[in-house]
Fold this protein.
Amino acid sequence: MMRGEGRTLCDFVPGSPPTWKLHNERVTVELRAFPHGLCLATLWDSKLGARWSGLAPLTYLATLPGSSQGWRLLDWSCQEEHGAVTLQVSFARGRLVLVESLWLPPDLSIIRRWVELHNGGDDMVEVEQYHFLDLLLEHDLHDSSLELLYVEAFAGHRWDRWDPGDVSFGVRQQVMTAGDALRLTVGAYQQACSWAALRRRDGFGLVFGLEYDGAAEIRLIDVSRVPGARTWRSPLPLEQGVRLTAAPIEPLHVQLEPGGVWRSPEVFLGVFAGEWDAAAHITHALVERYLSPALPDDRFPYVIFNTWGYAWDLTPDVTLHCLEVATEVGAEVFVADYGWARDVGDWMSVPARMPKLEELGRRVHAHGMLFGAWMAFANASPRSQVLLEHPEWAAWPDDWGSFGTRALCLAEPRVREWVTQQVLRVVREYELDYLVHDFELITPCRHPAHSHPPDPSGYHSAQGYNQVLRDLRHAHPQLVVENCQGGGRIMTYAMTKLHDTSITTDGAALLDSLGRRRALYGASYPFPPRYCASYMQEHPTDYACRSCMLGGPWILMDRAADWGPLEIEIARRNIALYKRIRPLFRDARVHHLRCPDGDGWDGLQLHQPSADRGVVLLFRPRGAPMVRARLRGLDPQVTYLLETASGRSWEADGGQLMEMGLHLDLPDGGSEVIFLEARR
């Protein structure tokens, strides 16, 4: 038994089977050891009264050479650090040792898990397939259906095409009934973000996410009614219930030499109750408190100007004009996008479309702004020196590359070393404060001349890409890193651990206020506002600017040299408003009031329970009915002061605002920003 801060963190009950119970202030996790591995028996939130039960091995692990014998329990240990408890249970099968790890924070109804495989034998072992998560939920779909919520990835998430009708971060719901088998692809260039939530009719739900960038799949299967489901990738026949699995789409081909250790990517699983927003709240708390880097400074997320709105039309004089405008309106970062280098892959500054990067950086810093640059560090033009000298470094055979480039294979150590040297040199030589990376980074590769195993799902490529970022962050800990990858194509929780923010808008949404709001609305379910960066390529209007304000950074990418005094004043006013809003991102809960669809009003609400204050952004597209927004997360017994961006103020009871709603007579095609704070 282990104790910490006056409460039991881990109870062990010997017997058949051995049982462990992990506790924090909210949740109890019961685990049991069987010959087929460690099983999650119960996940119970005592405050919510939410309980999920089932009994199936957490791990499906297929190795070459394989073995049909079961696992033997070796030992276990439990450690406590900063109130979080980690349970490790070790099993043996021949000369292999499997260490199951579960981590429980002190303050959330959530667990994270991973495994380590130790090869104690004399021969190489290959990990062919592995399930990040494998649960059997005690639920009969004949008696009651289940609801599934997931969020699509960036429009254009597929590597092979970008359909005009695609919606960035569309929110999707499905109902699972008897006999159903659902499959959702997530991760690199797949259908959805690496997050989903499942809810019963009683309002209790499970939320889960993958800390893995490669291509993966989530499956939900009605075990007793789907042919083959009882024994599909399971060490024992399952009888009934709903099976939830998450695994790489293709074999991993992880080769483990004698004495070697393989650690799997992490996955998390949490309990929530009520609306889908509750699943978002617990996920955001996990990311901000335990996964993401610390905020760069008190201003973050920043207001940024990016040069790509000019594409190939940019000149050095226009660049400097934009720098003056960006300074005048209050931008805090100036980013030199595509066009500063000789070519993609030849990362040397040339004064073609903008001043040389070193000179531009000095000017930006002299204006009191941070300086950033764009890189597609894992791509190269066929004309670049690196591909002329090493054509075999490109991924093969399904190679692709944006803008006529080729994707380099980061699974290959020689390539990864060269890429790392280039990005470290660029950050150092040009004194960058901010880096946005782009194009293709996780690439399946089967090149016969490469030293890595066949990599059909991009597992080895993802590990190489993550290593580049770890080396970058270690060498430049103050550097702010933005995830792009041809738009928000890889929205995972491995991404949040190595980046400060991520893009959510590209393509048509750059010029479309509704598209930007739709992207922010959807992406802010799986990810906190700081991972919902919004690019804007419209001339400033109040409506266009406010459509970017509940995520960050806010990135201006319009042709600022063409702005007149009116556009400059509108931009300045709205940037000041955004700077007033963004402190609310920290420790705030996002409430999704109504999804933007162009037919009715739409809105998002941020609220900080600790300070009992927040902000609401409401929009009325042209022709839409008047706004009647029922707010959420307020104290019904408290009176709130409400103040609009234009200065109008009034008071209302929290109960009234949540039950009767906030009624606004917005003009056709209008918007409003309302701050609210409890009156004590």
The longest helix spans residues 413-429. Residues 122 and 258 are 5 Å apart (CA to CA). Confidence is low (pLDDT under 50) at residues 1-6. DSSP finds eleven helices and 43 strands in the chain.
